[in-house]
């Protein structure tokens, strides 16, 4: 009796086929162009059944991501929700949104990333992160047994290294904003390194200006939700809860501002309530009107809006995060212990602090030679030879 072939070959279609019985009792035809491909598909099918994957599920990528987002959006910051929606609506779903989850292959996920070629590494990382979380959710719920994007890496254009403000630029910024609503925001950013959400959530009760060492404690933050600023909101991490000493210049400015303030917030909105994202934008606009634009000439409309009394004395762009980055950089340049810098910056992971520190400290031969000489200054050639002998003895002994 002739042995039954491993697979049936359909000459009309050119495909190999194998009919298998599912756990439900139904039969399913599995097809592939080659025997190797068909064996791989059968192995995946067997594994999926063993892991309890719902084989007849017809959920698409778009349906999964929509439900995944709805289940997790509460509690996310406005910026994080915006990142997720952007990744899903503008980058993932236009390419694979209509695919059934079970039909998505690694190459399909790679096409999503290929469409982001030339974009920043930051954007690619965010999009890949959403895909990973979405497909991991599908695995956990028995819709697929393996994520198709598990081995994909983000590429893209590296984020430009942030250049902190120089002491001269800091002085120019303080002079340009003095007497405006942006002045206190700038000082707090430069001299405490608070995040913008932390500055907006800072209350006078969080400050102790009469202590021997004036300081503030970061207790709350404002969460930006569209045009609203929600207070109180949790801090970014546990490490964000910290007490920061205030340099005398900032302490004096805060005392003066407190004597005139009618709000419980240090940097409030115009109506005295907690600041919102629009409040921050308005404060940055004050700085922007004092900054020389990159264009050849400022339009007549812009000049009229700025007014003749406002002088454009700044030739650099300022963001809230740049103020924070400048503060951390100054701490690194001072030679302060790295763990203290991590605490003052509110970094939960010291790798973030070290990433800034490594770009700040001098690493040229001329800057390092003194430390290297000191490291070996007490070691003579005789001592070196003795150490080598001891090592040889310990190895051979």
Automatic annotation (TrEMBL):
Source domain of life: Bacteria
InterPro entries named in the record: DNA_brk_join_enz, Integrase-like_cat_sf, Integrase_catalytic, Integrase_recombinase_N, Integrase_SAM-like_N, Tyrosine_recombinase_XerCD
Tyr recombinase domain span: 160-373
Keyword annotations of the record: DNA integration, DNA recombination, DNA-binding
Keyword NADP: no
GO molecular function terms attached to this record: DNA binding
GO BP term, example: DNA recombination
DNA-binding as UniProt keyword: yes
Cross-referenced PANTHER family: PHAGE INTEGRASE-RELATED, PROPHAGE INTEGRASE INTD-RELATED
Family: Belongs to the 'phage' integrase family.
Function noted in UniProt: Site-specific tyrosine recombinase, which acts by catalyzing the cutting and rejoining of the recombining DNA molecules.
Name the record gives this protein: Tyrosine-type recombinase/integrase
């Amino acid at each position: 009796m002739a042995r039954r072939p491993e697979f049936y070959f359909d000459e009309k279609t050119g495909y190999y086929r194998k009919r298998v019985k599912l756990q439900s009792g139904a039969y399913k035809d599995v097809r592939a162009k080659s025997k190797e491909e068909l064996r791989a598909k059968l192995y995946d099918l067997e594994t999926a059944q063993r892991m309890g994957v719902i084989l007849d599920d017809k959920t698409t990528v778009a349906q999964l991501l929509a439900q995944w987002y709805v289940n997790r959006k509460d509690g996310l910051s406005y910026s994080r929700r915006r990142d997720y929606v952007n990744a899903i609506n503008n980058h993932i779903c236009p390419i694979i949104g209509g695919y059934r989850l079970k039909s998505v292959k690694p190459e399909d996920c790679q096409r999503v990333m290929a469409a982001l070629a030339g974009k920043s590494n930051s954007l690619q990382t965010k999009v890949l992160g959403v895909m990973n979380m979405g497909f991991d959710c599908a695995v956990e719920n028995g819709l697929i047994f393996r994520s198709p994007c598990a081995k994909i890496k983000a590429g893209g254009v590296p984020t430009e290294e942030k250049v902190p403000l120089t002491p001269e630029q800091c002085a120019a910024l303080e002079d340009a904003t003095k007497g405006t609503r942006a002045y206190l925001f700038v000082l707090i950013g430069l001299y405490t390194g608070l995040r913008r959400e932390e500055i907006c959530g800072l209350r006078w009760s969080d400050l102790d200006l009469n202590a021997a060492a004036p300081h503030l404690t970061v207790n709350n933050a404002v969460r930006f939700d569209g045009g609203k600023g929600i207070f109180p909101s949790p801090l970014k991490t546990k490490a964000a809860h910290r007490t920061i000493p205030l340099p005398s210049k900032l302490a004096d400015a805060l005392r003066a501002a407190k004597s005139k303030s009618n709000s419980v917030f240090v940097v409030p909105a115009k109506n005295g309530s907690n600041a919102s994202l629009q409040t921050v934008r308005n404060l940055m606009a004050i700085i922007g009107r004092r900054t020389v634009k990159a264009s050849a000439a400022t339009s007549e409309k812009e000049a009229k809006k700025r007014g003749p009394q406002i002088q454009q004395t700044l030739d650099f762009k300022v963001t809230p995060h740049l103020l924070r980055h400048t503060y951390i950089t100054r701490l690194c340049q001072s030679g302060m212990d790295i763990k203290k810098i991590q605490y003052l910056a509110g970094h939960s992971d010291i790798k973030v602090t070290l990433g800034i520190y490594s770009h700040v400290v001098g690493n040229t031969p001329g800057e390092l030679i003194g430390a290297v000489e000191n490291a070996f200054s007490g070691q003579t050639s005789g001592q070196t030879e003795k150490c080598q002998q001891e090592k040889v003895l310990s190895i051979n002994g």
